[in-house]
Every structure is written in structure tokens, then in C-alpha cells.
Amino acid sequence: MSTPRFDEATQKELQQFLDREQANMRMQSTIHTFTEMCWDKCITGSSFGRFSSKEEQCLSSCVERFLDTSLFIVKRIRNLPRE
């Protein structure tokens, strides 16, 4: 079976699709890691439908720190000089 050949425009479109999918995969992995980290840090007991107020506050703070840090990093990367 031969490998299909695509014109340059199709190759570019496929590469852009793959790049977007890889970025989505990295984001999902980051979210998973972040969720696990905050859960392990904040959830101290077994929750039956509700978190304690201390757990809620911890989760909220953890999420806010993660978002603030992510925004900071994105801004720094955007401001780096291009090589």
C-alpha cells in the first residue's frame, strides 16, 4: 500500500491541525496535573457531596494561584525576543 501524497496546502493544513491537537493534549495534561495537585493538597477527608469550608477555600486559592501563574508565564513567553 502506498503512502498518499498531499499538495503543499493540504500538508500545511494537516500540520496546523496536528499542532492544535498537540497543544490541546498538553493543556489537558496540565489541567490533569493541576487538578491532582490541588486535590491532594486541599482535600483532607472523605467528602460526601460537600467540601468543608476550609477545603473550598483551599481549592479556590489553589485554582487562583494556578491561573495567575499561567497568565504570568504566557505573558512572559509572548514578550521574549524571537530568535
Structure in words:
With 83 residues, the protein is an all-alpha fold. It has one domain (13-43, 51-79). The protein has helices spanning 8-42, 53-79. The protein is elongated. The mean pLDDT is 85. It comes from Exidia glandulosa HHB12029. This is Mitochondrial import inner membrane translocase subunit.
State the gist of this model:
By secondary structure, this protein is mostly helical. Helix content is 75%, strand content 0%. InterPro entries: Tim10-like, Tim10-like_dom_sf.
List the SSEs and their pairings.
Elements lengths: L7 H35 L10 H27 L4
Helix pairs in contact: 1-2
Structural class of the helices, strands and pairings? mainly alpha
Largest sheet: none
Taking the alpha carbons of the first and last residues, their distance comes to 42 Å
Could you tell me the mean pLDDT? 85
Low-confidence stretches: none
Helix segment count? 2
Overall 3D shape? elongated
User: How many domains?
Assistant: 1
Instruction: Estimate what percentage of residues fall within beta strands.
Output: under 5%
Q: Radius of gyration, Cα only, in angstroms?
A: 20 Å
Helix fraction bin: over 70%
Topology pattern, helix = H, strand = E: HH
Q: How many runs of DSSP E, i.e. beta strands?
A: 0
